[in-house]
Amino acid sequence: MTVFYTFAPMAAELPPNTELSSVRADLADNGVAAPKGKDQEELAAIVAQARAEGVPLSVVVVPGNPGHDSSLRDLATELGNTTQGTIAVLSDDWIGTHSDSISRVRLEWAEDVAKYRGNHPEEAVQAFVDRLEQPEGISWGVITGVVLALTVLAIAGLYVVKARRGPDDAGVSPRTDAGSTH
């Protein structure tokens, strides 16, 4: 008997040499977890500023780049299970995020400017925060409402034009072909 499994959930793949308990402990003091020897002051200042402006941010920096960029998002999601707010996990060139208050679309929009910063996590986090703090551009709900309203107005306008024409004039007969016989 053959059993097929489709869409089986995959286990979270964390970046190499990542211990969740140590990352959580490092995040507890200033919202930043970084490799030993990495100065956290500038990152902690950016995190504090973001929190003061309403973005409950935590930042994790992992050395190098993992085999797959998705492992950064997996780590952010794992941390998000016990940490409230928005978590950004950065490697040299990638970023993975999780948030309980910001939509995935908005997170990925902010991720785009934070990628490929090399070994400069401060620049990446600042770019990420700056993008999150920007007002949302297009509201698709508003655009949909305007298009719907214009459609209704066009239909109503066509109805009014047709109603004003009135019924066909009684004195005008429909066109007949000259050579037809009955």
Number of strands: 4
Calculate the terminal CA-CA distance, rounded to whole Å: 76 Å
Q: Would you give the CATH topology of the domain at 20-133? A: Diaminopimelate Epimerase, Chain A, domain 1
Main structural class: alpha/beta
Strand line-up in the sheet with most strands:
1-2-3-4
β-strand percent reads 5-15%
CATH class of the domain at 20-133: Alpha Beta
What Rg do the Cα atoms give?
Answer: 29 Å
Low-confidence stretches: none
How many distinct helices?
6
Average pLDDT works out at: 83
**Main sheet makeup:** 4 strands, mixed
- Molecular shape: elongated
CATH architecture of the domain at 20-133: Roll
Estimate percent helicity. Answer: 40-55%
SSE arrangement, N to C: HEHEHEEHHH
What does this structure look like?
This protein is an alpha/beta fold. It has a domain at 20-133: Diaminopimelate Epimerase, Chain A, domain 1, CATH 3.10.310. Helices cover 46% and strands 9% of the residues. It is built from 6 helices and 4 strands. It has helices at residues 20-30, 41-52, 70-80, 104-114, 121-133, 140-165, and strands at 32-33, 57-61, 86-90, 95-99. Strands 1-2-3-4 form a 4-stranded mixed beta sheet, sandwiched between helices. Helix 2 runs parallel beside helix 5 and helix 4 (104-114) crosses helix 5 (121-133). The protein is elongated, with a radius of gyration of 29 Å. It starts with 19 loop residues before the first helix and ends in a 17-residue tail after the last helix. The relative contact order is 0.10.
